Amino acid sequence: MSAKKFISTLDAIPDANEIQLHVNSPGGEIYEAIAILNALRAHPARVVAVVEGIAASAASFIASGADELQMARNTELMIHDAWGIGYGPAATMRDLADNLDRISNNIASIYAAKAGGTVESWRDAMLAETWYSAEDAVAAGLADSVASPQAPQDAPASDQWRAVLTEARSSADTKDTTAPEGLDRLRVAARKAGHARHRHELIAARHGLTVGS
Questions:
Q1: Cα–Cα distance between 25 and 170 in angstroms, integer?
Q2: pLDDT (tens digit, 9 = 90+) per residue, 77-130?
Q3: Eight-state DSSP code of residue 14
Q4: What are the tens digits of pLDDT across the range 132-177?
Q5: How many CB atoms lie within 10 A of CB 129?
Q6: Rounded CA separation 201/165 (Å)
Q7: N or C, where is the chain less crowded by C-beta within 10 Å?
């Protein structure tokens, strides 16, 4: 996603108190990433970044620059020195190397601001292209926690399913297997619950049967 598109999306939620930024990215162009990071910094909401797969390269300093960084289990974060491609005489190559050092020091300052330490120590880690597991990222100070698994968010739909399934079985007990309203409600609940097993239960319930575990 470009910085322009990201900032446009961010501007559409000006009154949010907290923003959860879910990250799964191998990285991208440095200044695009810095623009995204500064847009998050400027937003009044508290920004909680959650790494869901990988936060590598430029994505790592966007995530580390959030107010809080959570690593989902089994995720990784990777940091490395800035890269560049150039052509020309030796003087041009020297200028490119100097520019890459300057850019890398700038990135290292983001990690230092989050985790402590010096720019020089973070440059050493970047030069080594360091990979961090979720736990390693927390230990290094780049992340704040390893996120705990959360309960499914569709519990209300599951509750609705259980209620209408009970009703269907009750209808079967009274031999009322043709009531369209109850069947429609069952179909809606099954769609919301989103499981093929529920469709099997719907058919079984309408015929007074039970689906085994």
A1: 50
A2: 999 999 999 999 999 999 999 999 999 999 999 999 999 999 999 999 999 999
A3: T
A4: 999 999 999 999 999 886 655 554 555 655 665 566 556 555 544 4
A5: 12
A6: 8
A7: C
Distances (CA, A) of 71 to 75, 93, 112, 194: 6, 38, 18, 27
> What residues contact residue 93 under an 8 Å CB cut-off, 6+ apart?
86
Whether 19 contacts 42, CB under 8 Å: no
Q: Is 201 exposed, middle or buried (0-12, 13-18, 19+ CB in 10 A)?
A: buried
Query: CA 11, CA 126: separation in Å to the nearest integer?
Result: 32
Write down the domain spans for the chain.
3-146, 155-206
44 alpha-carbon distance from chain centroid: 20
* Structure tokens that stand for 164 in this block: 């209408």
**Which 3 state secondary structure label does DSSP give 187?**
helix
- Choose which CATH entry (3.10.180.10, 3.30.450.20, 3.30.420.40, 3.90.226.10) describes domain 3-146: 3.90.226.10
d(CA 93, CA 86): 7
Q: Give the amino acid at 137.
A: A
- Measured in degrees and rounded to the nearest 5, phi and psi for residue 132 equal -120, 130
